[in-house]
Amino acid sequence: MSDPVTRADTIGLARTRIDAHTLGLLRADELLRASGFRTVIAGPALCGAFSEPARAENSSRIRRWLSENRISVLCFSYRLGAEDGVRVFRRLMGQLASDRLLKTCGGRIKAVYFAGLPAACDAVHHLYGDAVGVFRGDESPRETLTRMGIDPALAPDDIAGVHPYDAALASFGRDVIAAGDEASVMPVDRATSKSFGTKQEKVVDRMEHGRRHGLPPLMRAHAGPYQSNRREAVKHFESWCRELARAGLLDVLSIGTSQLTQERFGEAWDGRPNGGGVPINSPREYERIGQAARPMLVRTYAGTRNVPELAAMHERTLHNAWHALSLWWFSRLDGRGPNAVPTNLREHVEALRLVASAGTPYEPNVAHQFAFRGADDVTCIVSAVLAARTARRLGIRNLILPIMLNQPKYTWGVNDLAKARAALTLVRELEGSTFRVTLQTRAGLDYLSHELPKAKAQLAAVTALMDDIEPDDPRSPDIIHVVSYCEGHHLATPRTINESIRITRAALASYRRLRAGGQVDDMSAHPEVRERTSSLIQGARHVLATVEACVDRPYTPRGLYDVFRLGFLPVPQLMHCRDEFPEAVRWQTEVRRGRVDVCVDGKPLPPKERMQQVTARMLDG
After folding, report:
1. Whole-number Å distance between alpha carbons of 96 and 1
2. Domain boundary among 145, 160, 175
């Protein structure tokens, strides 16, 4: 089954239903299609079948999918627990052999690939040797193709190439780690912040205190250990909170709750699969966690059902530092929640009214959700502006604008800077005495390598990229969401969270010293960034103006639904609800020269022309 892949093959990409990590599959799909190969991604129903491939009805579904699509190369991804991933994959391989679907058994499938956590990949390689290729997640486009026996020359140069700015950032990151300055990073003294460490302290208080005193950005990190004994898992997390609080390096703790916490809080779970995360299931547990975490500020994931009620409970129990709501997403649209999209929008808008009445900030967890589904750069920016305008109309006074860099991971740094600056420009136009925007930056979800030394250098490099968004403002960014360097390999613990914060702060200080000495390029007026920023702003304005002209009350639940339904926000790699939103999935995007554009026949389609097509289809419909 190690035969090289050719353009005569059809490549099938599949995962299980419980694993919501789709980025690896989608990035592989982009790369293979751009290189001239035919791919087929298993839909939601097939994902359920791949969860238990040995069951008769599931085996039949998988066989039919493979046969109807004439799939000769199968790529399977499982990026949750390593043991579970190996177990599911062994069952799949056993069933493929039993059904005589593998080439070695007389079938069509000549190559099988497994993508998973490093430990799972090691186990799969031990079991199957070279008969199964493995992908740990940090492979470059060139490495991905080579591992599949594909000539990398088939990929467009502008996908496989490296921009000089990115090469310089990578070199800087390696230098930071080699210097070892992170060992000397100490906690920031924020004790004189208003109501520091009490229930009354607000994140805006801590930010304003930091600005007045010239302190480093607030450090936010995500933590969420899971184990099968629910009560023990919560107790374990409380001990993590106390450990992080004692270290004093983390300002904002984000609780990574389990899927059942988000969807079925307070119910009897009866052995339902959880999908990882802290399995919190009572208000009292949240209260204990908030107490254990002080003086850190604490926030948690929003619910995926009964969203307003859970938001109110998070206010009461945690005094939530801020709320992150995703409007269209974490619903049936992405398989992350049970709500239909109209219901989700209504619940999120109702929750935003509650958040506004409490005076708590809001983070629109929106733009990168579109990027995850293949949206172009303009769409990501437009979605953030739509969310910000909606929030302002609902009375939100403080908006925390999240900028996820390296998304997709083939994006060049100069394009990341342009996207961030364009989004900031358009969202800050809303600022006034009653509305303020705060920048929060982070590394991409699938950016960091599973090789820990490389990941540390990447974390330092992306910190420099964050600082180049607004290089002339020493107070920007206000918040850095620190993605722990180990997350491509294993779950972040308090030790690795603290080490990641030290690396981030050491990199930030080092990069600012180099800039002050003229030893790094001045990115404030870089011609590529300036040109792309202007183009993105102009394109986003065309889309936003068309939305406001064509959609009735666009900043209401119904209006936001129509914006998506009518095709203003392309998501070509949407895996769920495709039949409900044909206009959203009809547009194709491509990654070229480190940027993502809507393309027709391989050429970028200007947003103004696309808006003309959208409005024409509305009239025809």
Report:
1. 12
2. 160
What are the CA-CA distances from residue 385 to residues 247, 271, 427, 543 (Å)? 37, 41, 6, 11
d(CA 545, CA 547): 5
Domain harbouring 378, CATH code: 3.20.20.440
Q: How many CA atoms lie within 13 A of 212 on its CB side?
A: 10
- Please compute, for residue 586, the number of CA atoms within 13 A of its CA located in the half-sphere on the CB side: 14
- Per the structure, how many domains does the chain have? 2
Separation of alpha carbons 509 and 552, rounded Å: 48
Using CA atoms, how far residue 114 sits from 25, 62, 261, 495, in Å, is 11, 17, 30, 30
What pLDDT does 51 receive?
Answer: 83
- Flag whether 592 is in a domain: no
Question: What dihedral angle (degrees, nearest 10) is formed by the CA atoms of 547, 395, 318, 486?
Answer: 30
**Within-domain flag for 596:** no
**Three-state secondary structure along 365-433?**
CCHHHHHHCCCCHHHHHHHHHHHHHHHHHCCCCEEEEEEECCCCCCCCHHHHHHHHHHHHHHHHCCCEC
Whether 102 and 228 share a structural domain: no
Q: Residues 529-588: pLDDT tens digits?
A: 999 999 999 999 999 999 999 999 999 999 999 999 999 999 998 989 999 999 999 999
pLDDT at 1: 46
Two structure tokens written together for 208:
């304003």
pLDDT for the residue 226 = 81
pLDDT tens, position by position, 223-253: 998 887 899 999 999 999 999 999 999 999 9
Name the helix (H) or strand (E) containing 38. strand 38-41
Give the domain range for residue 53: 10-160
Same domain, 148 and 210: no
CATH code of the domain covering residue 27: 3.40.50.2300
Choose one of 160, 182, 203: the last residue of a domain.
Answer: 160
- Domain match, 169 and 152 both: no
Residues 210 and 154 in one domain: no
Q: Residues of the chain whose pLDDT is less than 50? A: 1
Return the percent helix, strand and coil in the chain, to nearest 5. 50, 15, 35
| 531, part of any domain | no
Spatial distance between the Cα atoms of 378 and 399, rounded to a whole number of angstroms: 20
Co-location of 227 and 102 in the same domain: no
Q: Are 542 and 607 in contact (CB under 8 A)?
A: yes
- Collapsing DSSP states into helix, strand and coil, what is residue 492? coil
pLDDT of residue 143: 85
- Confidence at residue 21, expressed as pLDDT on a 0 to 100 scale: 56
How big is the chain, counted in residues?
621
* Residue (of 59, 564, 30, 118) closest to 342 by Cα position: 564
Distances from the Cα of 89 to the Cα of 21, 134, 218, 469, angstroms: 16, 12, 41, 42
**Domain shared by 110 and 98, yes or no:** yes
